[in-house]
Amino acid sequence: MRVVVCGGGIVGLAAAHALAERDASVVVCEAGRLGAGNTERSAGGIRTQFSTRVNVELSLASLDVWESFEERFGVDIAHRQPGYLFLARNPDTAAGIEAAVDVQRDAGAASELLAPSAAREHCPELDAERYEVASYAATNGFADPHLALQGYARAAREAGAEIRTHTPVTDIRIDGDDEGTGAADVRVETADDSLAADFVVNAAGAWARRVGRLASVELPVVPKRRQIAVVEPTTSVPESVPLTIDLDSGSYFRPERDGNALVGGHFSAADPAVDPDAVETNVDFDWAATAVERAGETAGYFGPESRIRRGWAGCYAVTPDDHPVIEISRPGVATAAGFSGHGFQHAPATGRIVAELCLDGRASLVDVSGLDRERFDREETHAERHVA
Ligand SMILES: Cc1cc2nc3c(=O)[nH]c(=O)nc-3n(C[C@H](O)[C@H](O)[C@H](O)COP(=O)(O)OP(=O)(O)OC[C@H]3O[C@@H](n4cnc5c(N)ncnc54)[C@H](O)[C@@H]3O)c2cc1C
User: At what angle do helices 53-67 and 91-106 cross, to 10 degrees?
Assistant: First the structure.
């Protein structure tokens, strides 16, 4: 089986690794350098606290890999598990957190509902009075996205995959399908080469819609700008503090090195589609000031003297229901895109699922049959409420 993976972000490299490990002949074509996309702009958050079963299942199947990454791939990715803390101010949001904890537990994730005062055990500076309820999961945390990307690249190469950087895919031609197998006679064009394959994998993240169109596959994946600031708070944020999310204000923070914090969130009602090639990657000062102010409402670490040290912006690849498209889109074309801000953490499971779709014709690790793009036409979408 010959597979060309389009996109050398964490999803493409995890897919390349899983395919090569199962003896497929794999070439990854990456338009820029490895990490040129959005993987290295992510906060590296890894959690099991979602509100839909399929997202929790993708998390659990991925968590297993994150927890054993160094053992498996020989790379320390600075994986930390101080937990995630979700907070609700409003009764409706509180009911959503309670329902989500049921979904998480039902799927096998160890989440707990906490009174906000009890959540202070994890986040001592929490302004508990402001909140109705909290949920916490101790296995949640974060890793270094750059190290994880490099780890997957190394593992994919060691398994036999070839990785071509500065090699944009310019066209995809599908000349005939191999009946019943899901594969086809695929030609993947680059500036220097024409690669014959049985499958092309669209793992182009925020560029997935454009790449899909090369193969006449229309994907509802829209790039939206998101920002992060590195903040020196007035009181150091201990490394034991969870990634803490206020679902009503949209603000989140997590400890970074030396008592600093990463602070993020989306606060504007306007959320236009952006061009992923032209997106402003510098952080907006006004946004950063708002982000620190919002984080300061959640916890006392962020007093008025907090200093914004630096920041950056990138793109989420968003679908209308904040769930990815993972499917065989047509014979010869596998799609894994539209992760809506969750693609870093879900990459390990997704890579293995892509390999199953290409090599076995169906996914068995997680039932992703409801993540096809036609769900939007059928109006059978999901509703992820735990989006930051
Ligand atoms: C500010 C911010 C914070 C985030 N925080 C988190 C988080 O805490 N946890 C989490 O799970 N996720 C987070 N995300 C989302 C996460 O970064 C993405 O979901 C994830 O990186 C998607 O990986 P990917 O491999 O699909 O895409 P990318 O890493 O963007 O890779 C796609 C690649 O495709 C390449 N490409 C495009 N067109 C072509 C072409 N024609 N030919 C060849 N290659 C092409 C691009 O150059 C790019 O390298 C965050 C994102 C942002 C912006």
Answer: 60
Q: Name the domain count of the chain.
A: 2
6 lines ligand 1 (CB under 6 A): yes
Question: Which residue's CA is the nearest one to ligand 1's atom 21?
Answer: 39
- Angle, vertex CA 251, rays to CA 246 and CA 256, nearest 5: 105
Nearest C-alpha to atom 33 of ligand 1 is from which residue? 7
Q: Is the CB of 322 under 6 A from ligand 1?
A: no
206: helix, strand or coil: helix
Rounded distance, CA 289 to CA 293, Å? 6
Distance from residue 8's CA to the centre of ligand 1 (Å)? 9
Give 224-270 pLDDT, tens digit per residue. 999 999 999 999 999 999 999 999 999 999 999 899 999 999 999 89
- Assess whether the C-beta atom of 202 lies below 6 angstroms from ligand 1: no
Helix (H/G/I), strand (E/B), else coil: 253: strand
Structural domain range at position 366: 2-44+146-220+321-378
Q: How far apart are CA 82 and CA 122, in angstroms?
A: 8
Residues 228 and 212 in one domain: no
Q: Are residues 171 and 302 in the same domain?
A: no
The reply to whether ligand 1 has any atom less than 6 angstroms from the CB of 324 is: no
The model's pLDDT over 338-378, given as tens digits with 9 standing for 90+, comes to 999 999 999 999 999 999 999 999 999 999 999 999 999 99
Atom of ligand 1 nearest to the CA of 336: 26
- Tens of pLDDT, residue by residue over 68-99, are 999 999 999 999 999 999 999 999 999 999 99
